[in-house]
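Quick illustration, no need to memorize.
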Amino acid sequence: MESDRGQMFALEGVLAALVVLAGIAFALQATVLTPATSGGTESPVEGATLDSVLTTAVESGSLRDALVNDWDGGGFTSGGEGWYTNAYPSNDFGSALRQSLDETVTANVVVSHRTPSNGREQTRLVYNGVPGDGAVRASTVVTLYDRDVCSGACTPTARNQFFAADLDTSSSGQIYNVVEVEVVAWQG
């Protein structure tokens, strides 16, 4: 009978271990893990806010003006590296960014444009480093016309001085280039 008793203790131990494991499994399923509880960072700004800033800037023309009027032939004005660092452009688009983003939010503004060989290049308008965790992105497309980029006739010199190439150089062509402007914001 002693051997039956040992088997009973072993079976009781196995059943107790199963009950403990079932309780742990239930507790893990009942716990909700969010990015904040796992150590992630909260988004510094809503994507809808960035979309709204870009949409308003396109509709008002301030984004086109920032791209065209701030370009000085070698970079965006006020930028030692050819782009703004630790500041936004001193125009309506820059003011909209300043008003929409908290002082603790860092942002980059990058302009992507097509090249004559159907490639893509990027030009920085605002650059403040590599985006951190939780970065929010928004982008929009802006069509630039010859009249925007070149006051008067678009001479080869004027074309060569602008950051984006004139993709339609025919005599009847009016579209200069189509660019994508992306704003990336993160907690700085």
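The CA atoms of residues 54 and 140 lie 7 Å apart.
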